[in-house]
Amino acid sequence: MVSPPHEAMHRIFQHDPGLFSRVSRFLGVDIPAPVKATALPTDLTEANPVERRVDTLLRLETAGQGPYLLAVEAQGKKHPDKPASWAYYTAYLWTKYRLPTALLVVCQDHATAKWAQQPVSCGPPQLPTLTVQPLVAGPHNMPVITDPEEARADLVLASLAAITHAAEPGVDAILKALSTALRDAPEDIAKPLVEFTAQGLAKRPAKNLWRNLVAVDLSFYKSYLAEEVRAEVRSEVQAEVRAEVRAEVRSEVQAEVRAEVRAEVRSEVQAEVRAEVRNEASAESRAEDILLILEQRGLDIPEDVRSRVTHCTDPELLRRWLARAVTVPKAEEVFEDA
Known about the structure:
Layout: H1 4-15, H2 19-24, E1 34-39, E2 56-62, E3 66-74, H3 82-97, E4 101-106, H4 110-116, E5 120-121, E6 131-132, E7 135-137, H5 148-153, H6 155-164, H7 171-182, H8 187-201, H9 206-217, H10 224-296, H11 303-311, H12 315-325
Parallel strand pairs: 3-4, 4-7
Antiparallel strand pairs: 1-2, 2-3, 5-6
Helix pairs in contact: 1-6, 1-8, 6-7, 6-8, 7-9, 8-9, 10-11, 10-12
């Protein structure tokens, strides 16, 4: 997947093709400013099914040295296959357009930049045949522009400086200078540079600083950066509201469930109590029957016998006592088999 920094590092040259000539002095070469620039198709695929695309391809025309091609590659990390691809790009473009071809690789870290600028030959040591050694722009050679006036003099270069130094300690000062310089720039000039810079910073800590600087210094500016902030705030608010609503709904559901469970339990308890009351009434009735039979038979009923019978709640036991009450010679013998 193509990352925002990758896009920013090469598309900024599409936005301002003359940037290459201004960058070249930091790369140790002197490239004349173009008098005309044309964006060319980036698809370098031949008849075979292998697709090859350069990131940005420009045809630049100069007043004194004629036209040449500039291929710009954004490189986020070392990749062993890239030198061979770069060799293919330059050879193919030279063959197709019959124009001198320059290759610029833009990086955001020192290790990748050092790797990218090493010459790579496709032949054995004694027969180099074709050697690829691209120009490399990165944190090791791009200027650290911290003066707003210097940034104002070349806003695009200042934006590229911020992108290539995105992971460097000095990026904060570059961003502050750039935001100050952009304050006086027309919106059609400021807008793409704000977006290029934001893309180049990606998810690095400096992205938050840039967003805050844009909000303060460029309050007129509305872009995907503002929409990004809006989306983040919306997400945060959604989380807060969701938590609040969840608490409210939980309280409401708890009340509903409590009422439902209370009704269910009440119904169950009513049934249990009814059964208990029935059993108690049955026990009382059976106890009365036992005492009545003993009395009708003319037997003496001691108080402890009467108390034991009246306080018994076991229907089965009372039934046995009732059966014995009919035949026992003494009231106390009602309990003998208990």
